[in-house]
Amino acid sequence: MKTGGKSYVSSPPAFSNDGKRLLVCTGNTVSIFSTSTGLQIASLEGHTAPVTSVIVVPASSPASKILCCCWTASLDGSIRHWDFSVPDLMKKVDIKMPIFSMVIPSLLVQPVENDEKPSDLFAYLSVEDTIEQENRPKASRGQIRKCNLTASRLIGGLILKETPTPEFVAVSSVGKFIGIRNKRKLHIWMVPEKDSGRSVSKKIALHHTKNLTVLAFHPSKRIVAAGDVTGRILVWRGFGYQTFSVSDELVSGRLVDKEEERPGVRGNDDADSCSTWHWHSAEVNVLFFSSDGAYLYSGGKEGVLVVWQLDTGKKKFLPRIGSPLLYYTDSPDPTLSSISCADNQIHILKMPSMEILNSISGIKLPHSLPGIYEGLYSGFAFDYSSGLVALCTENYGIQFYSLFNDRGIYEVQVCERNHQPADEITVVVTFVALSQDGSMMSTVEAKLPEEGIGGLVCLKFWALGSENKKFSLSTVIYEPHRDAGISAVAFHPTRNVAVSSSYGGDFKLWVCNDEIQEKGLMLQNSGWACLAVGAYKKKPMTAAAFSCDGSVLAVAAETVITLWDPNKNVLVAVIGETLTSILFPCPEVQSRSSLYGACQSCRYLGHTSFTLKL
């Protein structure tokens, strides 16, 4: 059995040391993709629950004995050490608590040449304590814990911080500081230079008036940035000089008494200044400093990557990414980086131009439809000739996804739309259908009425190009069933004919002009036109399908199924809800139809019929 279609953006990815591979958390596995082609080349399998962190060991790290090794953490409560070039599992650490985030600061410390014995390797974990305790409130289940990876055990009794829920742990690029956000506070710890089991520096807290969403450390200076739920970015400069001083003496010039001499700093927070930038209209999800510290990258629901110049606050943009941003990941190769988006795509960027070089596409999800349109939705269709599945997406498009390669191939934009975070849903793509050979496609879109006025249903037909193998729009039909919604669309298995049924009580047969030309009628414009209309007792038509050879059209009319001859548009039988069998025709009319309820001319004349019991 082949499985696929997992989320690629549940956790931040990680680049290999040469920048040629991207390690992506995909459910219980880590999928390894080529950054040049976007294709999956390997996977790390063994975790029994979703993987939440993947950390590639830098080539310059003293812990790097193998060029291609990484650490992973999972909700299954285990930490694993891999050689991902093989791939091969080298070590497993079981802490028996779900791990939501992990950092290993000592991997980022530059090696020092000496004869001392290598120190143990420590990880800082954000875990969930699932054990009920009477003296601890149920609301505080998140914990920041320390784990000795060398000894394969947690540091017993040492809890750096308890939080209502597990929080993402951030680490500075040189491994000197770690931090988390906790509602309206940032908690920051300084990692000891010679880390040991219980050596933990004091922590500081920086306060804000709104809930914080993300934080990032400057690569070389004592600067930390955080985003909040309103779209603001706060930049604290000179944090921790009082608390993190080497001795009891305070650093010269850092301790000031007057509030105005520490602009923007709240209360007794340990920072020299705090400045606020505001461009985003919704919460900030992405914050990351450039490797030289000159720029700060930010992103959120707008689908725009903003690049701030740290000294001046000036900004430039990478617009029209098309989906809210979740993570920005830097690469050891300074010419590459990646953006993870909410539509299950990871874009590989060429730096510093921020040009999209490649994309790793998972299955995209559709909009959550309003209640009145839930019954009109058919989210996918299969192209049996190529092994692709067509899916309605959130951005008013159709995504073609390869089931064999487990990757997105390309998209067709049904409605033109620029992503805006504050947009209300005004249009939904409710249906997609493909012909049996995959050469034709039909889509249905519905414009939602505003205050009960202005609703519109649109049926579109598309043709597959012979050269580029992509669909182009052929015909647009507005209100194909008056003001009624379309319940189904199906293509004839051998001809350029399609059927659409509606809740308004009718179905229509559509024919492509190419089909008409084959019969000798020369038409200059290629497109689709209505060939016939059918109805049954004014009942809503809720589904439609052709038989395998196309000789019979079945249309559901509430609780009965009507069978039609599509060539003559004649009703030939009705299967009622109380029937327990399907009647095949008597021998005298066997040639008239391959599927027939009974012989209309001799139903009561005693002729023999054959019955298939249900």
TrEMBL record:
Lineage of the organism: Eukaryota, Viridiplantae, Streptophyta, Embryophyta, Tracheophyta
Originating species: Carya illinoinensis (Pecan)
Domain WD repeat-containing protein 75 second beta-propeller, chain residue ranges per copy: 397-576
Name of the protein in question: WD repeat-containing protein 75 second beta-propeller domain-containing protein
Signal peptide feature range: none
Localization terms from the record: Nucleus, Nucleolus
Keywords tagged on the record: Nucleus, Repeat, Ribosome biogenesis, rRNA processing, WD repeat
WD repeat copies, ranges: 277-318
Entry-linked PANTHER family: TRANSDUCIN FAMILY PROTEIN / WD-40 REPEAT FAMILY PROTEIN-RELATED, TRANSDUCIN FAMILY PROTEIN _ WD-40 REPEAT FAMILY PROTEIN-RELATED
